[in-house]
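HOLO CASE FILE
Compound: pyridoxal-5'-phosphate
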Amino acid sequence: MKKINPHFVRKDFPMFKNEVKMQNRPLVFLDNAATTFKPFQVIEAISNYYLYETANSHRGDYDLCYNIDLKIDEARLSVANFINAQKNEIVFTSGTSMSINLIAYGYGVKYLTKDDEILITQAEHASNVLPWFKVSELTGCKVNYIPLDKNGKLEPESLKKVISKKTKIVAVAHVSNVLGYVLDLKELAKITHSVGALLVCDGAQSVPHVHTDVKDLDVDFLSFSGHKMCGPTGVGVLYAKYHLLEKMSPFMMGGGMNAKFDMCGDITYLLPPVKFEAGTQNISGILGLKAAIDYLKMIGMENIHQHEQELRKYAIKKLKENPNIIIYNEFADSGIITFNYKGIFAQDLATYLNSQGIAVRSGQHCAKVLLDYLGEFATVRVSFYLYNTFEDIDVLVNTLLKGGDFLDAYFT
Ligand SMILES: Cc1ncc(COP(=O)(O)O)c(C=O)c1O
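Model generated. Tokens follow.
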């Protein structure tokens, strides 16, 4: 394990250049669960495509097309290696939301019936709830909830208690975007498979931060987004075991995914994964995602996770020194910390922090039912990444200590 020097890492990220300011102050960016900054290497991969490599993919007959096909293939292999999958198990999508919708429509709507059940938790992001509501609406199956423990974490024992032969899909986030617990996916997969159900993993907050091995975890599906891992927006990944991709229906139809079709409507699809990639792919996005993966691999996923743990430990210790701060996930194991300041509405606090150059997220974080569970209307969330420094936390903590200023800020 190597200790990351975030001050050096920052040199790769133009958003940390001196010219970039928020409220005329140096930027303290603590909203990495929402999106992350991009290093020059990623920006260069994207701009090189537009500057020197532009062509459409899908087997054109000249060198530029041939080059792009090769590069997309290389990118697919790189994503596969990153999560220990096979190349043909990687579908490029627009992000986690699209990936989960693809599972819902391509598998859920096709195979589930009114007697079946999908299990999720109250801690899920909207993208891992609403697609399942749609499956329920279209097939009549039920969406039920696995109980969380008193800290809002899903323990395998709780799944054991509620799972049954009716359960066909268990869909959970490996790391919750509000409370930041890292779930024991391996154990959850064993329990899920014991009744013949499939485990859908929302990896939006895990793949960018913790080393992920789909074979070892034995998940059936995994979704993640490029923009949360130093890559571009508009590109993401659906991993699925190949035999499941073979069984699934495409959810988008068009060019690039069929071998032939006739006037009567008979269509022969290409094999997965391209069967699920209708239309022109997000080529620059895919090339940018590959560059992001190369970058994260150069730094090392274990080193990134350790860096975030150290930041977390330091931040929790410092935040606890302030009696006005209520922390909701003191014992989580990722770089996500969720809190409130006594007597101050979360959004007001976030607006105040913005006035001091600090970017945090406030509100319900797309996990509306979890906030009901916590008994809060809104919370403030900070989330770290490889380029965050201990000084970032000092700025946050010292700003929060000047509690009285919050009210002053309304009257200036
Ligand atoms: C846990 C989780 N799932 C899904 C998503 C949706 O990701 P995207 O908006 O990139 O599709 C997010 C985004 O914040 C998330 O945190």
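CASE NOTES: DSSP finds 15 helices and 17 strands in the chain. The chain has two domains: 6-30+300-411, 43-298.
CLOSED: yes
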